[in-house]
């Protein structure tokens, strides 16, 4: 790795620590209420095609909770899937059927077991550490979503990418590289922000 690449990684690590400390400091009651507000905001501005496959995530640590929104969308006819860790490098998405049991799927999260069919989401709700006003996402550093998106792109798939976060996770600038894929939207307790049209 070049010196510039090492410096960029160090910058990202420091930024990640800073923003996650802010998120962790939020009162649990605030996080709960903010998750409900974000779900309410999304319902007023996002119209899903009936039967659309939506990738959510099962929250870990202090992440904003997408489950209220996912539940609302399921009621409106959306199909749901969740990420599962296949190996150290790879996540895939398995359909989350209404009566499915969830199992530990890596990194402290939960998802459908290996009997659930693999899915290709048209819309992805993405967890993140931070984001900036350009729509660049600061992940957790493992690159799982980056590789999944590259795989989808190679198959000709271009899902709508909606990051979910608390307002306090916005930063001035997320260092990015040419291969990084920006979010199309960010959903927080304050509402939905659109970064570029599709």
UniProtKB/TrEMBL annotation:
Its EC number is 6.3.3.2. Keywords: ATP-binding, Ligase, Magnesium, Metal-binding, Nucleotide-binding. One of its GO terms (biological process) is tetrahydrofolate interconversion. InterPro entries: FTHF_cligase, FTHF_cligase-like_sf, NagB/RpiA_transferase-like. Pfam families: 5-FTHF_cyc-lig (PF01812). Substrate binds at residue 63. ATP binds at residues 12-16, 137-145. PANTHER family: 5-FORMYLTETRAHYDROFOLATE CYCLO-LIGASE (PTHR23407:SF1), ATPASE INHIBITOR/5-FORMYLTETRAHYDROFOLATE CYCLO-LIGASE (PTHR23407). This is 5-formyltetrahydrofolate cyclo-ligase. It comes from Falsochrobactrum shanghaiense.
